[in-house]
Amino acid sequence: MAEVFVSKVAAMKDGDRQIVRAEDGKEIGVFFSGGQYYGYSNYCAHTGGPACEGMMMPKVEEIIDDKKQWNGTSRFTDEMHFVCPWHGWEYNLKTGECVGDKKYKLKKFSVVLRQDDIFVIL
Amino acid sequence: MEMPSSETRKLTFDEFQTDKFLHHAAEQAHARNYKDFLIVDVDSHHYENESYKDVFSYIEDPVIKRAALESVERPGRSTLLNSQVGYQDINGRITRQRLRKIEKTTDAEHRDITMTKRWMNAMGVDYACLFPTPMLFLGLHPQPHVEVALCNAYNRWLCERVLAAEPRLVSMLYIPFNDPEAAYQTVKEFGGKKGVCGFMVTSPRYKPVHDNAYMKTYALLEEMGLPLSFHAAYNWSDQALAMTNRFISVHALGFMWFNMIHMANWVTNGLCERFPKLKVMWIESGLTWAYAMMQRFDHSYMMRTSECPQLKRKPSEYMREMYYATQPMEMPEDKSILEATFKMLNAETQLVWSSDYPHWDFDLPSVIYDLPFLSEQGKRNILGANAAKLFNLDTTKIVKEIPDIHPALKRA
Q: I need a surface site. Which of A24, A29, A69, B338 has the fewest CB within 10 A?
């Protein structure tokens, strides 16, 4: 199975990302977040933007009280998203699903460690 | 083991260059052979506020000029120009809005020219019609004489500093519509300038297009053979739109709202009959609004024909002869819905592709090129040929320079 070197383990700190290129020229984004590695196609399901190169933003939630009223407050949750910088399509970091409509998702790639090195499996 | 580290790049936010940011657009341009045909963008933008000091130096009125130049010396809110609440960058998620400030350019040409050509080349665009950004709200300024002064200064600055220097950039110049006489004088003064391919009314304003005071301006435009466009934007303080509490709502509705009002007045007052050769274009409202209005106005017209005595045909027949900039083009999952919209608008001759770049909801040429129901010629018409004819552009040569892409992608 083909694989592509991503980085030395020590070179990626929590919150870092690398963009690597597969043999076919296509790009893959590799995230290191919360002690986990995630690999996704770097082409947004919308118009092909560099989906893995945008902001990391937690999911936003509005607080609705027990009377179904919203008092104007909202908060960030623990669910981390990354956002395509072209138009703002937002993806769940753990699944690669587009949070606006889950039937759109980025192709996922396995990320493995070998000694001090990180590889993405094509 | 040798690692292909040259093919790996660490993602940082401490550098930014437009053509690199858009390298996937260049991949699309190569894959679709955009080098083979002309692409014209009828609606793109620069940030004229980044050049305010220079622009304001063109203001003729010494008192307004003093106030304007003073306003740029102060940090914080503008003291002379009106603005709108509007977090168009989705609270930082659209990163180019912030990062463009650190983009490097040289002194060889105006920074706006360099940055505009970078995205044009990446997308495969030959010519772009350039519009301002904050000035899209200038029609809501409470002082018409300030609108006139800033409009004239901007138009002179744009003609001298940008359009005269770069043949790939054109513009439909801003008309100070709140002062009908000044609007007329603007067309007279700038109508023949290099790169001026028409004139543009910013739609958010409260002057009806059928006011008799505008007739001589429409007649002049018709005589000069220059199109008149209405560029959409929003006014969150509008009495109806003020009820919305999120930008998504004011944007989705507001960018249609004022163009719908102007279209209704334009058609029902028989302006198409009075100025049959005047070409009218509607910008940045997408397409569904026109599709809906055609049906609603035809339906009502058959019952209330006497209320529109100047019309000799149904409203939709006039609307079908106007031009529509495509962005932000609605993309229903069921493409038959979009196909019906294209059919309703006579798309292959009346649609003109627009990017709106660098704004947050820009479109690429692929939104048109990838549509399954268009012929190859239809795609090329919408992406460039229709606009080239409208703007009288040189279509004999392709002038874009699409950036190179990775060799493996070329082989694919």
A: A69
CATH class of A3-121: mainly beta
pTM of the model: 0.95
CB-closest option in B9, B360, B409 to A88 = B360
Cβ B360–A47 below 8 Å, yes or no?
no
Task: Verify whether the Cβ–Cβ distance A88 to B27 is below 8 Å.
Answer: no
Place of tokens 């149904």: B314
Is the pLDDT at B411 greater than 80? The verdict is no
**Within-domain flag for B4:** no
Domain that holds residue B249: 27-411
Q: Does residue B14 fall inside a structural domain?
A: no
Quick: pLDDT tens for B133-181. 999 999 999 999 999 999 999 999 999 999 999 999 999 999 999 999 9
Range B72-111 burial, b when 16+ CB lie within 10 A, else e = beeeeeeebbbebeeeeebeebbbbbebbeebeeeeeebb
Domains identified in chain B, total number: 1
Partner A contacted by B408 (CB < 8 A): yes
